Amino acid sequence: MSIHTSIPFLDLVTPHLELEQELTDVFHRALRTAGFIGGPMVEEFESAFADFCETKYAVATSSGTDALRFALMACGVQNGDVVVTVPHTFIATTEAISQAGALPEFVDIDELTYNMDPAKLREYLEMQCAADSSGRLISRRSGRPVTAIVPVHLYGQTAHMDPILDLAGRYRLLVIEDACQAHGAEYFSRKHGRWMKAGSMGQAAAFSFYPGKNLGACGEAGAVSVNDEILASKIKMLRDHGQAKKYYHDMEGYNGRLDAIQAGLLHTKLGHLAKWNAQRRERAAEYNRLLCAANCGVKPPYEPSWSKAVYHLYVVRTDDREGLMHHLKQAGIGTGIHYPIPLHLQKAYGDLGYVPGDFPNTEQAAASIVSLPMFPSLTSDQQQRVVHEIRHFVQSLAPLPVERT
After folding, report:
1. Are residues 119 and 193 in the same domain?
2. What is the pTM of this model?
């Protein structure tokens, strides 16, 4: 293997070149029909994506952020509500909550999976909330009613949904999944005795098709998966200026529609997604094997028995992240950090009043995680080189032996 060839963090060129003719055909179809907004290509993708998610409906939107915002609003989240989520996620999760009129409040993550810790959620609901005279759950922190939970299926792995859904049922809370990084991930539900797809377990779920996702558009795109016909209808109205039909507005809505060309491109790629996800899982297993054999002190991802992750990202932990990233960059290897500053410590949320130390698992992860190259066409030789350079870096930090005189 050549040590002079760079290894990108993400390869978006190869799959598009492989599918170039199929993707070009989508554009030609749109040109010939002038169907650019809505229409058959959007509806065909929605039907296919609903089947993929094992839900009755999918509603395409202009972005993953819009998908989550519309899902929250359609499910009944109102101005002044509290929605509980995690501080270890992209800001779009909390932007959607805020833009739906609610206030985000946080619970810590599990230190192994990086997803919402059900024990921390239970502690929040039992210790930091109280029921008012009508039985509504009220946050002691803000004095607002708690109405929903947004578990994030981060890095391509589902949150531990059975206990989260049990708590939601006990406290009469909505569950809207943030599945923006988890297209095709699965969770084994002991309650139902079967594997369930990300996006099929809550009242609704949001997906992003940002280009770097496992299923990525050639631009911005998103979708909501849902089993309830009334919710699906509400989301369709919200994305289209509140229209029940043209020029009849049942509510004030938004311009959150998905372009037909993007829907067609996504429909084409969807046929390849299962294969791409399987390749990601193979690459993750190879990384695990190589890192274990190298015994270099870098901690690979943890995948519980109840999870079939699709490895949107392959995230490891190290004691010297900046040093390791610099070394890999010098060796021509791309890396990333997801995410270096937890949301509760972001300037944008300074008015929420959180301080360092509030969510130690999140803060420790944010300071030590780094994402290694991960994409379906990643080769074994490239992975060997990545791990070789990691091992070389770790060995360079070892103290030199003391010479005896």
Report:
1. yes
2. 0.95
Q: Are residues 73 and 166 part of one domain?
A: yes
Instruction: Indicate whether 230 and 302 sit together in one domain.
Output: no
CATH of the domain at 356: 3.90.1150.10
pLDDT digits (tens, 9 = 90+) for 87-115: 999 999 999 999 999 999 999 999 999 99
The radius of gyration of the chain's CA atoms, rounded to the nearest angstrom, is: 22
User: Residues 240, 192: one domain?
Assistant: yes
Question: What per-residue string of b and e applies to 79-109 under the rule 16 or more CB within 10 Å gives b?
Answer: eebbbbbbbbbbebbbbbbebbebbbbbbbb
Task: Report residue 397's pLDDT band, with 50, 70 and 90 as the boundaries.
Answer: confident
| Per-residue pLDDT reduced to its tens digit, 328-339 | 999 999 999 999
Query: What does the CA dihedral 60, 66, 201, 171 come to, rounded to 10 degrees?
Result: -150
Alpha helices in 205-359 (DSSP H): 229-239, 260-294, 321-330
What is the b/e burial string over 325-354, where b = at least 16 CB atoms within 10 angstroms of the residue's CB?
Answer: bebbeebebbbbbbbeebbbbeeebeebeb
State how far the Cα of 127 lies from the Cα of 12, in Å rounded to an integer: 46
Element of type H or E holding 67:
helix 64-75
Contact 202, 228 (CB under 8 A): no
User: Do both 280 and 255 map to the same domain?
Assistant: no
- The last residue of a domain, from among 235, 268, 301: 268
DSSP string for 24-64: HHHHHHHHHHT--BSSHHHHHHHHHHHHHHTSSEEEEES-H
Check which CATH number belongs to the domain holding 218 and give it: 3.40.640.10
